[in-house]
Queue: 2 jobs
Job 1
Amino acid sequence: MTPSTDEGVTPNRRLREIWRRIESGSRSDHTSVVVPSLTFDREELAKIQGIQFYEERLLVSLLRLKDPRARVVYVTSLPVHPDVVSYYLSLLTETERRDAERRLTMLCAYDSSPRPLTEKILERPRLLDRIRRFVGGGDDAYLTCFNTTPLEMELARKLDIPLNGADPRLTWIGTKSGSRRAFEDASVPVGFGVVGIRSREDLVEGLLRLTAHDPAICKAVVKLDDSFAGAGNAVLAFNQPLPGDAEQRRRALDRAIDELSPATGEPVAAYLQKLERMSGIVEQFLEGVDGNPLRSPSVQLRIDPEGHVQILSTHEQVLEGAIGQTYVGCRFPADHVYRAAIQSEARKVGRVLADRGVVGRFAIDFMAGTDADDRVAGIYAVEINLRMGGTTFPFMALRWLVSGAFDEKTGEYVSSSGARKAYFATDNLRSPAYAGLAPEDFFEIIRRHGLVFDESTETGPVFHMIGALSQFGRIGVICIADGGHEAEAMYRNVVTVLDTECVVDGAPWTPPTHVLGLPISSME
């Protein structure tokens, strides 16, 4: 993807005016039209089991109805079970619930095909008309999406409301190649890498450049430019020392490509075809020091329509999969050892993006290491996710459910009572034993076991992707507590309850010895 020649795109004037009225505490109503479309490559979307239920992750935005001025129009591919909607409204206080339903409109396209939701809406003029009617004049309405592409911009144009997100002409910054350019412009450390990889030959040349930069390198990571959640990554290991002759080195590296390990487990030939279609990068595989593996923290930011950069949160990402690079969950906040350092580096990148006209939420992933004395031993920027992501909605839930504020100096969320909040979150809690649980069954279970958010203590689990349970045996949960250990203990309790309640072939299912690929003992 080539950079736009118009990098100075200014924030939409109407969005800026709406932002000013909301931030000023104006009594004027405002409408958020939420279209949680994952507008990515169709082939990649088709591989995600239960992709349509990812649209339920942003149902936490219904908590926006705590504000009596707020209205929400929420659009999905398939209908959301009424009990699921009621569950989110039940997280409001009794006073807040009184007229929240009146200010909520749920719409759907009745289309389960593995295509972007935005595309489905644009195909349905009557659905567009219904959204327009609920929006009304649209003076204080805006479009909220998971990511922004020309499709989302077209939808905003047809609805005649501003898009609350990065202009699609700037989304190249969120590619793997664009991220590296932004990091370099911000003078933020990044591992050595080569961009513009489009073929096996390019990959060989890139590997040659890596080994010329550091002759000791024996491992590299290849990344598709436009992929997400680590699904476009592949690890490549090769034997050292390489032959001294240049042509022999080239042949040795070419043979090593046959042993490429894509995160999805797909054949090497299929991965190389996608590399040719999407382009990508190859980077050195970063290693830890003193036997301590590198961790993968991230920083969430927002650039408001006025161009101000705000640090929202930090997280420790939980990565799994065949090559250990697939995102499956997160902990908030990130480790205190490097929390301030990654916030500082992220702010530098944020300023570069603000100067280019980026607006909206995004995240920056890092690799961070510690030494034997638990001191920072290297921080490297990895990529920019110029969109919402897996860490977005857990923090949205925390912010709307817990009175308080994020303290950038400490990197903690401090409640109005002084409690330092933490959470463990995932949308990948799954088991074959959970399949067949209808929403009614699930809500009966959590009520019976007290797995509910307690507004008096501002702690408890909050569930999402509930619609995926019956067919796919999968659900998400955000465990909010007064500390990281308490949050993980809460998560283990959720797992234990579901495992105990669910049976396979008439017998109780044996609880797993691991949670999200991590030994339970390591979470204590």
Job 2
Amino acid sequence: MAVTLGTPLAKVLGPKTGTGMAEQLGLHTVLDLLRHYPRRYARRGEQTDLADVQVGDRVTVLAQVRSVTTRPMRNRRGSLTEVVVGDGSGRMKLVFFNHRHAQLKPNAWGMFAGTVGEYRGEKQFAHPDMHLLDGADDDTDWARALVPIYPASKDVSSWVIQKSVKLLLGAGGGFGELVEDPLPEEIRARHGLLPLAAALLDIHRPTTMEDVERAGHRLKWDEALTLQLTLAARRRAAALESGVARPRRPGGLLDAVDAALPFALTEGQREVGEELAAELDRDQPMHRLLQGEVGSGKTVVALRAMAQVVDAGGQAALLAPTEVLAAQHVRGIRALLGPLGRAGELDGDADGTRVTLLTGSLKAAAKREARAEVAEGRAGIVVGTHALLQEGVEFADLGLVVVDEQHRFGVEQRDALRAKGNRPPHVLVMTATPIPRTVAMTVYGDLEVSTLRQLPSGRGGVSSSVVPVVEKPAWLDRAWERLREEVAAGRQAYVVCPRIGDLPGDEPEDADGAPPEEDGRSDRRPPLAVLDVAEALRAGPLAGLRLDVLHGRMTPEEKDGVMRAFAAGETQVLVATTVVEVGVDVPNATVMVVMDADRFGVSQLHQLRGRVARGKHAGLCLLVTEAPSASPTGQRLAAVASTSDGFELARLDLETRREGDVLGAAQSGRRSGIKLLSLLEDEELIAEARAEAIALLSTDRGLADHPGLAAEVAALASDERAEWLEKA
């Protein structure tokens, strides 16, 4: 049978193995298996990671049999065989019930796979899968230097994958002819890259770790270039769209906004504002990401862009992730515009516009009226939640889509709102979570990027401290004293908890972004809850203060009432979930106490901290945790407390989180095609691939002379692997 890269594995390996690989590992073709790279490599006689495996991990280890003991079981019939294996760095016990393998003898080498358990404080495998390296079936050839350990499943072991890959690679010279290299020869030469066939051979059957490094570098290029070509193609397609220019009009709403601002724009706000104004003046739709520090004034920049579009006869839609934030945006914009934001009302300015709120919780009559204002064009600025995306919401002339807190939405939601325009509207997406350069070039690679680093003058600044309650319990008492001192001085405070409390189906509310627990504690108590903490504070350290609660299960009317009371200073302490994470702006709030701070991610803590010191008074953020100071979690919190530079913290966030959390489905490596590329380590490679992708697509023929690359891009763009790009 002639084998090609597209041949189904079932035809090459047999129905049982091929079906198992397809169902459990997502490997369907010869190319899929060749792109299923080893997770790591083991070497006989050298220390591996046996000492580092954790209880509950499913792992494959290469180890040597040290001892074999068989004895009758005490409480039931049959025998128990205990085998101790070691690898130079540690030891582990293998337990078999009523089973004795004839070749399990001292000094024998083998690979053992299973879920790590523990019995009487000792790690063990119970009835592990195993493959003894006895010299048969060319095991000695496989283990002559480095033994590849593959991502495996319960029924498809690493050594089955090894033998299958070896079969595909073959012993003769036919493999090189089987593999067609999609990478142009001039790119390979320019960057010193191996041919694809050589890279695949070296990644699966290396002699040295230098082989692995060279092969991995080439294969990373395949991933990076295909991804960057896909993103560059999207940018080119967007550049060919024809929209509507929205030029600035002197004496209009934008000038009125500028005159009404109670503060001077920062230099950064002016520069980005001019950048947006110039792009809005073109008939090619803008596609831009505005990232900036917490409190850097992105909303003002967006409002000025929306005012320019309204002046040019269009409408602007602001998509917010929560009803609390949407309602706050509307209050802030209406207050700033004054009569110019109430056109058509008794006290409104006829030359102004209407600012309309559209959310899912509006009563039927109010929703109908809001939709009519939008459809008839009376509402120039429309602020809403996901309700803006629903069928039945029509715009008279949608000219600008603004997406606030982009990380809460997917590309498909952004495009659903864009589709409501008669012509492709301009798009501005915003995030207060600073983005490392590699993420900007990948996850947001279809957007141009603007950055605001400068904070408005007059801000008091925030100091942060970790409160390790187990090591220093008295510090928590002092934290509540500091909060009372700020309230006594006329200020206000937040207390943030990861959970709501005694409500049906309660679970942590949006406490996402935290890395998996690193400290090995499997008996952690449930996260602290708003309702419980509020009750304890009322009866204890904050007794006598005006305290209220805010969480996502409250009705919109309840949430709006609570926020209004807090903004007006009627409430002194707000105990809340992360519903206050984004956009909430109460300048008089100066203290935030984050309970169970270790349950939150780095960027989320930075966002939360940005809710205080938004006025002239200095702020204080206290990160309360039970994690030991010396633990990875404690060190992560200390790093957050040590800097207020969001861009530095963004890199820390990338270091402490799994990259799959950033790349969505890329974590599995199945859908995105991203298996080796690292956003943290491969910044230079990604930048070089981006430049090559732009150069390739800038020629008249594009990829017409590179059918292999075109096929790779088409596969990523057309099948389900592109899903992560839509949702990242």
